[in-house]
Amino acid sequence: MVVVLGTRPEIVKLGPVINALGARAVVVHTGQHWDAGLSDVFLEQLQVPAPERSLGIGGGTRGEQLGQAVSLLDAAFAELDPAAVVVQGDTTSALAGGLAANAREVPLVHVEAGLRSFDRAMPEEHNRVVVDQLADLCLAPTEASRQHLLASGVPDDRIEVTGNTVVDALAALLPDAPARQALLHDRGLEPEGYVLSTFHRPENVDDPDRLGAVLEQLAALPLPVVLPVHPRLRARADASGLGPTLDVLRVVPPLDYVAFLGLLAECALVVSDSGGVQEELSVVKRPGLVVRRSTERPEVLGTFTELVEPGPAIGVAAAPLLRDPGAVHRRLATLPSPYGDGHAGPRSAAAVLALLARRRPV
After folding, report:
1. Using 50, 70 and 90 to split pLDDT, how confident is the model at 58?
2. Which of 38, 54, 86, 236 lies 20 to 30 Å from 218 when distance is taken between CA atoms?
3. Residue 185 catalytic?
4. Mean pLDDT, rounded, of the chain
5. Which listed residue (110, 200, 329, 343) is catalytic?
């Protein structure tokens, strides 16, 4: 079977499924996010085999990427003749994989199905809804996701609740306490003595006013802010005249997954617009401010995360969380993650193989 991925979060989420499928899985990388250093290290750390095909669709508009990816995946599927196609989440790569599998009448499996933000301004919402409807098997991470699928007309026999594979990935790769201390020491950081921040979503990065409001609030926080910066964010900040504000922060190059998890597990607070970080916080028991209009991960709202708008709301929400970070972390440590037990990868692989057994009895 073919596993289609194209972004670093997809490598993280699909890595445990690929590992559980073993030699049955052939990886095709669309190239939606492709810089050799980062993609290669993510594949290596998640023990994902080198892609059988790398399609190189990076760049261009969303529509151009989608059209090119569907065409190239169609050609790849014609050659590889997969028994099934597995995609994850809500990316352009996931939608392209779903459309190409549908065109070839190949069974489609959607990992992390059923998430909903109910925000039609979010391109990812359209992607995930379409892929859910195309999928022959929807692997829902939570019971809430299963209910969303049922409400959208997906039959119960096409749904399996597996947990979220991010828990598997994090359990395998989170550095131990001595390794985390070394990681902090090398960066001149103290446990619970810094804020970790990431921003990449167009609603924040591509809007100079929103980006300026975010950076201004980060700079005003009472602890150092570690901000891994992708070249795209740097370019947007410089083009908007926000470079000096960005430079007040502890800017670092993009991090590999192991280093990021180490910093995540020892920080005082996270301020981010990432989807996956919201899930990871529930495993490492840290609080997060989610700077977005909406979220498709309500399971952690009010416990590990809080949804805030750019601007003064960031500082207001951060203040009580930074007053006594240790107390906040001890409280969160008593709360279970809603995303499962760390066995979502094997559970997902078993569901895929069961689907194929039903369709192609031996």
Report:
1. confident
2. 38
3. no
4. 95
5. 200
